[in-house]
Amino acid sequence: MKNFALLVMAVCIVVISSCRKDTGTKCKSYTRVTVTNLVGAEQFHLDSTYTNAAGEDYRAYMLKYYLSHMALVNENGERVELYAHELIDQSIPSSLELGDVEIPDGHYTALEFNLGVDSLHNHSGDQAGDLDPMYGMIWTWNTGYIFFKHEGNFTSSTSGTEQPLIYHYGTDRALAPISLPLNLHVDRNASVIQLQFDLNKLYSNPNTIAFTGNNNHQSISASDIPWINALRANFPGAFSANSYVFLQE
Amino acid sequence: MKKIIVAFIFIVPLLFVACDKGEDEVPAATPYTLVIPQGLPPMNIPSNNPLTVEGVALGKRLFYDPILSANNTQSCASCHLQETGFSETTQYSTGIDGIEGTRNAMPLINLGWQTKFFWDGGANGLESQVMGPITNPIEMHETMENVVAKLNAHAEYPDLFKAAFGSAEASSQNIMRAIAQFERTLISGNSKYDQYMRGETFLSSQELNGLSLFTDMEKGDCSHCHSLGFTFSDFEFRNTGLDSIPVDEGRYLITLNQGDRGKFKTPSLRNVELTAPFMHDGRFQTLLECVQHYNTGFRYSANLDPNLSFAVKGRMTQQEMEDLVAFMKTLTDMEFVNNPEFH
Prior knowledge:
The structure holds two protein chains of two kinds.
Chain A: H1 2-23, E1 29-39, E2 42-43, E3 50-51, E4 57-74, E5 79-89, E6 101-103, E7 106-115, E8 138-139, E9 144-155, E10 162-170, E11 176-186, E12 190-198, H2 199-202, E13 216-217, H3 225-238, E14 239-246
Parallel strand pairs in A: 1-12, 10-13
Antiparallel strand pairs in A: 1-2, 1-6, 3-4, 4-5, 4-7, 4-9, 7-11, 8-9, 9-10, 12-14
Chain B: H1 2-17, H2 53-63, H3 126-129, H4 131-135, H5 144-152, H6 157-165, H7 172-184, H8 192-197, H9 205-215, E1 237-238, H10 252-255, E2 264-265, H11 287-297, H12 306-309, H13 318-328, H14 334-338
Antiparallel strand pairs in B: 1-2
């Protein structure tokens, strides 16, 4: 395995070098974003039991969300959009690995994105790619995307019984713009940005969200609005990012 | 270190992919010539979904195919019958699981001039509307994912998708677009009223009296909302005083604005003679009952449409109400309900 990896590295370097020679110009820099769902310090797994800040045990059998207009911002405040709309689905490992994107060389100081789908794209199902209605992340009777979906069970703190949890978070007011600090310097090299999302932080920071008596939200009635506002305030703190650079010359 | 190795494995393929080029050669579908009857304005068709002969034909086939429902028993046409202006004669429609809905199936006429769909306007386009009935648990109770899989496994559909959209792969987007294309061809513009407006026929004196009551702000005052001329609707959302406290909150369910409680989309009156029962909940069986509602029956509430708030109850005589109904029947277009292109 290790030998294979070294071989891969060698091939990379050869390919990159030849690329420079052929074109006579700078090689391109590429980056990609990987997403990891966490609960605290642990990697999140579907159907595993976790405990939230309110002390309730819970499990998720489905965890999906949209990240839109993810962009790198350089020290001059210029944005380089990496991805338009990406559906992150814990059950589909490939959805956690966003594609490679060519970026200009430079020093990037922030990663910006929205949790959710921007209002320009939020009101039509006539869309392809990750916004394809086939993925079941859309309300079909009131056209709009479900930005975040957590379905599972939890143990009620009052009755001690297991109850279903259905959180379907969306509508324009729910769009959460997020900006994370980054220290990424690229100069003709490849990089990886690791984006992490902590489900327990979503339900605790700064607003503690207990599931008991609060376990069914579809974002479509007026009574959902306080819950939307609480989650919207929590989303930015639930994400963190760091970056790695490869093949620096 | 392990992460670095993993990263290299990702990077290698992209170096080769970078040069990859080439798109499928797609034979263009045949443009569909939409005939707009004289008197109707041009239709606004989304630039990303132009009508094609192949697209319309595919949309028609999908419209009539029960493959869109979970147990393959119901099609769009199960509740939208051409002989009644693509509406249904029952008050509510019953879905594949035997569950009855709570609103009357809307007629499908001149949809290409409308921008919001369903009684509450929950769908923002004809394409997006298609998903509603397919996925509604009390209607066709299917998922778009299953529909796509069933169509791709079908003996004939992949070729039809290829002819219409250049790709033999059915997708939710192309399903929506094909059905929307077919629906845009469902144009009614040859009623007795249209012929009268074109100088091809005459209206009876009763019908003419009805027409004048239709626009008379002291009498019928219908044309405020059922705009006279082409669409016979402003397609706005209005509370018409069906209930003081609405059972179905209508537009409010979409916007969550208090002022939208009990508001529903103004339906077109074209072919209204054929689309009974009436109102969003199908509560009225006859046109005369509808006119009686607007003459004396409407109920007051904060959201009642201002045109009705100021209207005098009992402002029309029985004869006038009957004349109004006679005029409404001139909007029946038998060519539309018998058009062989639509079935």
